[in-house]
Amino acid sequence: MRKDYQLPKFYDRLVCRTGAVSQAVGSAYIELRNTKIICAVYGPREVAKKQEFNIQATVACELKFATFSCRRRRRHIQDSQEKEYSQIIVQALQPVVRLDKYPKSQIDIFITVLQNDGSVLGGAITAASVALADSGIEIFDVAIGCCLRQIGDLSLIDPTYLEEEGRLNNEEEDEIVTNANVTIALLPSLNQVSALIMNGELDVDSTQRIIKDCLEGCIRIYPVVRECLTKSLEEKMSRN
């Protein structure tokens, strides 16, 4: 049986597993507090002949919230938020994959959010990266995602759903001034940022501090991902 890898003294609960979808070439399951995300990777597959020849592979991603995953029931058809998240994940993962190794091919990534309690985008980036590593597709590094919510003078790393909405408790009527949401994708071994998304208004000093906090969050997540992939590889080698 696979173990759950937790990061003490930073997250209430962080779980990372591989092999969550048996039919996929690579897959991963991530739990961040009460946010639960599953990802499956398929390919590389040859693209249709009618398409133009591309010397490099292309990465396609589809993120979908399960209909029961949010406080309000989601639709079966992909909405604008899901399409936006899918595009951001592609942007974050393209520098990770050795695209030159798979000409005229496409790598498909399917992400399903089973439960949304905040920090979905950061968790989805991490889950997709772990699934790519599990698939055996050649990559330069893993991408670690981390979200931050700035509420007034308070910075919250990997916020919950209510914190993302600008509330610090469960009282819907509370009115709290909100500032910004920030998500970063870090390639820790290469020490490079593959994606940076900011929504809101921040001054220069606050922006620098928040980016630094997000990067530190990514660095703290990385040992959990590394251990998960190491254990997964050891299991595969022991079966062969």
TrEMBL record:
GO biological process per UniProt: nuclear mRNA surveillance; poly(A)-dependent snoRNA 3'-end processing; rRNA catabolic process; rRNA processing; U4 snRNA 3'-end processing
Subunit structure as annotated in this protein's UniProt entry: Component of the RNA exosome complex.
Protein name in UniProt: Exosome complex component MTR3
Keyword presence, Cell inner membrane: no
Subcellular location: Cytoplasm; Nucleus, Nucleolus
GO molecular function: RNA binding
Stretches assigned to the Exoribonuclease phosphorolytic domain: 14-138
Alphabetized UniProt keyword annotations: Cytoplasm, Exosome, Nucleus, RNA-binding, rRNA processing
Cellular component annotations (GO), alphabetically ordered: cytoplasmic exosome (RNase complex); nuclear exosome (RNase complex); nucleolus
Keyword Nucleotide-binding: no
Main function: Non-catalytic component of the RNA exosome complex which has 3'->5' exoribonuclease activity and participates in a multitude of cellular RNA processing and degradation events.
Pfam families: RNase_PH (PF01138)
UniProt-listed InterPro entries: ExoRNase_PH_dom1, ExoRNase_PH_dom2_sf, PNPase/RNase_PH_dom_sf, Ribosomal_Su5_D2-typ_SF, RNase_PH
Organism whose genome encodes this protein: Trichoplax adhaerens (Trichoplax reptans)
Protein family membership: Belongs to the RNase PH family.
